[in-house]
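Quick start: read one record
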Amino acid sequence: MSDDAPQRRLAGLEAVFRRIATTRMRGVPVLNPALSVQAVGFGPDPLRTAPGAAPTMLGVLVTPWFMNLLRLPLQPVDGHDATALQAAGLAPLGHTVVRRYGEHALDFTGAHEAEDLGAWEQASLFSPMFAFADQPAAVATAREVMRLLRQSWSETAPPPSPPSSSRRRGPTHTSLGAPRGCPPARA
């Protein structure tokens, strides 16, 4: 894999969600017009959820309608192929698993988008996004989430643990408090 593959993957992620914003989400009243789509703080994901699973990136996706923490494989994985999902260590589409990053237990739900993006996992941080006045406020919150997660997993040993349970959609177990001055998380 080339050195610029993660950047191309993130550019593709942003492009897909920009298209969604102007097509499927167009005119939906949950959109905050002060916000845009932006991938924030993506880097190597320390969590390995299956032996030999391909590496994933961990970061925050900000959109006008949600802010989610994403586990994004470096290469697309077919979200409708159970064998491919299992080999990649990803939750099946619509299923939720608890992933631990240091002291933080987070509910990640399997997701898929056909437009060359493939499968990923997402943990909801904020939705809708009306509490954010502008893009810099949303991005600052996303960066703080990533700072807290990195700090947590760097202070704990061993590295983040594999999933502790798997279930169909459940309550969010986020233990990441909103940074000072930021709105509380809503699912």
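The first helix runs from residue 5 to 22.
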